[in-house]
Amino acid sequence: MRHLLIISFFLISIIVQAQVKNEPGKSLIIKKATHKIHIDGVLDEADWKAADVATDFFLNYPVDTARAPFQSEARLTFDDHHLYVSFVCQDDASKDIIQSLRRDFDFEGNDHIGVYLGTLNDRINGFYFQITPHGVQAEGIISGGGAGDDSYNDTWDNKWYSKVVKEGDRWTAELMIPFKSIRYKNEVSEWNITFLRNDVKRNHISSWIATPIQFIPASFAYSGQLKWRDPLPPGRGNISLIPYLAGGISQDREQSPTERASDLQVGFDAKVAVTPSLNLDLTVNPDFSQVEVDRQVINLTRFEFQFPERRQFFLENSDLFDNAGFPDARPFFSRRIGLARDTTENESIVQVPIAYGARLSGSLNEKWRVGLLHMQTREKESIGLPQQNYTVAAIQRNFWKQSNMSFIYVDKQSHKLGDISELRYPNASVLKYRKQGSDSIPFYTAYNRVVGVDVDLLSQDNKWYTSAYYTASFDDGFDRSSNQSAGFFGRFNTRNIGFFGGSSIIQKNYQAATGFVPSRGVYPGQINFFGGANYTWFPTDSKIARSGPGIEANYTNLPDGTHTDASVAFNYSIDFLNTSGLNFGWSYTYQRLTNSFNPIDDEVFTSFLEGEEYHWNNYSVVYSSDQRKAFNYFVATEFGSFYNGKSWNVLSGLNYRIQPYGSLAIQAEYNDLRLATGYGEEKFWLISPRLDVTFTDKLFLTTFIQYNELSDNVNLNARFQWRYQPASDFFVVYTENYLPEQFKSKNRSIVFKFTYWLNL
User: Fold this and answer.
1) Which domains are assigned to the chain?
2) Which of 105, 53, 57 is nearest to 74 (CA)?
3) What tens digit of pLDDT does each residue of 356-387 get?
């Protein structure tokens, strides 16, 4: 552990010395409007004519050495209550690429333009608002300076207004964003700002600030400055109340007689602007029945798969909590709250009722951010889970331009456990075992606590990034030695060359019960080393936009020095100018098993045993077609050896876009797994058709079917949404599970939910 920390801080010192001064770039002056701005998509008000113009957009992709052939203009003004943004986008009569009329559209697949605002002037955190030529809105929050794809959270939702008008050679848009919808500081006189346009039909990405092709053009490292000529309106203590009414009926046909139930419940969320940059979220008896269902996966590994968080309550400023640690050792993972594994029966994930919760998050000033979360869940007797309380505290100190240090504390408490002899709560999350001679004696763990510190350093030109973390856990009943985890990571990118590397240690008694540690239960502690490199060509006068090879390697030992895992993967990728792509790959894997398991079914087939060694080679090919066409597809195949046998995997997806009213898609995965005699032989499908219909920009229907042959189940999820007012919805959600052989219903439910966003 000591050596890892020494190496971490040595690398950090290198990055400190490598800090490059990056000039802020262009600036834009914003003036207060003298007359009312009408949101009609027509920029005929005098204030628009008098506003500073952001123009002269530069291409970022497929080349970064030219100005955009179809230019864009952006203007801003404001009044006492709203920020106004307008766009003029040069265009032609060719058909726009629009996936649907659904809000929160996909970045890659839709023509659009957006504004990216760093309202704290810290080049780290901010908001973005995007609009398509058909007036479809999307918004989100930015963290980490916008340097990586995971810096943009598009599930954040808020209330704002817009209008688009299309003409022959251009389209114009007006946006009206309430100041109460965003967080800012009264004393800050400048904001970071940039504008980005994705011109999908021409495969062009352009931005107001010229950005090298290897970097994301919305990154705050390459933003300009928005200078307020007139003072910002003072932030007000705004309060938003979002009550809901939900009801539903369900049938469980696997019970005899059929078990029927009905439910009616009310609750609410509230948003309180403590300051313009600090927000308090409250929830009482929350309901998440309208949240999009998880896409099923076939997991043939020994490690837990991580699904994304989609519940609105946990999203704003989520980076304060969720980004602590590394992906293989997160001290906090919000899906641990309100969702739990039924370890008493079938290992399925079930909802756990949340009684209430509070979440304070945001910025104190340009340098300090804080996050406090407190939630209480109710007992879930059917899966042996008691009442539980969760408390998380995080504080972050920003320094230099895009760097920070943060601290986190996570506490999980289980209540009313009682005497272990009663074994009232047999869920594995609270039930542990202690060796006593040859016996394993069960006991309850009443609490789990984790403390940690993270340091993230990002050079001001985004070329260098390094990170280090240290955490320790304290678990009721566990040996408090060997209870730590630490790691470091470094990355360097130039136009053509990129490389990364790092290491992490997870000791055997490190327990993050409210976190995500995928190797937990697999390794009795681990020491991991990883690294990789890539080279990219950007040919000219070619049908290829970019291509190049990449290599990654991974090496894992146990704390006693036993070598357990190693892998090397090589790939060569090609991105074509017509948006299609091709990738070839090869990988080598070595494993010395630390636990016995069988990837198909360890209760039916012979298991691979602890201590056994395996190694195999795999080959892969992936092709995706021109995504601009109404009909597009991808196909991927991977084949080779697998433990003591062979495997073949085919994954494909077909999509037909009925523009702009929706799409019909189907994704299919086929696995042919043939292990040695007695170890199992299985062929299985995962088929997922999806119908997405947007009748208007307020009426949506999504129907999602998932057939999983491995789990012998067909799941149907249909969700109807009527957005009758901004951020206010009526949902109808129907779910049913079937046995695939006779298509016999196992269980079904229908839920109605009404929400209303009320500004007090």
Assistant:
1) 33-228 (2.60.40.1190)
2) 53
3) 999 999 888 778 899 999 999 999 998 999 99
